[in-house]
Automatic annotation (TrEMBL):
PANTHER family: CHORISMATE MUTASE, CHORISMATE MUTASE AROH. Keywords: Amino-acid biosynthesis, Aromatic amino acid biosynthesis, Isomerase. It catalyses: chorismate = prephenate. Signal peptide: none annotated. Pfam families: CM_1. GO terms for molecular function: chorismate mutase activity. This is chorismate mutase. CDD domains: AroH. InterPro entries: Chorismate_mutase_AroH, RutC-like_sf. Its EC number is 5.4.99.5. It comes from the Bacteria. NCBIfam families: CM_mono_aroH (TIGR01796). It is an enzyme of class 5 (isomerase).
């Protein structure tokens, strides 16, 4: 068993507490499910948002998920680079797993599929799934 990073990202249609919390929890749930991870497998979660998101802490939604109460979660803002995808939430989940780097499924949802179309299309085809 070793620690692997699982990446994910999503976007919201507008900055609002409900959008931030719902989309973050859906993303993290999908990341865990697609990689066969339970909360006990999670070492930590780092969440960043673009600077146009300020209505809620996305970490709150993760801490509210059943079984995730003790998982260390931290939020930060992403670099404010001109032309970057707006209203974007990025997640880096560190987990103990037997999977190889190639088997990890990184999850990109909504407009965030533009960030890594290579990985988004790989997951649609089911590659790397066990």
């Amino acid at each position: 068993m070793m620690v692997r990073g699982v990446r994910g990202a999503t976007s919201i249609c507008e900055d609002g507490q409900q959008h931030v919390l719902e989309e973050t929890s859906e993303l993290v749930k999908e990341m865990a499910e697609r990689n066969g991870l339970d909360p006990e497998d999670i070492v930590s979660v780092l969440i960043s948002t673009t600077t146009d998101i300020s209505s809620a802490f996305p970490a709150k939604s993760v801490r509210s998920m059943p079984g995730w109460e003790y998982v260390p979660v931290m939020c930060t803002h992403e670099m404010d680079v001109p032309g970057a995808l707006p209203l974007c939430i990025r997640v880096l989940l560190h987990a103990n797993t037997e999977k190889s780097q190639k088997e990890i499924q990184h999850i990109y949802r909504n407009e965030a599929v533009r960030l890594r179309p290579d990985l988004a299309s790989r997951n649609l085809k089911g590659e790397g799934a066990k």
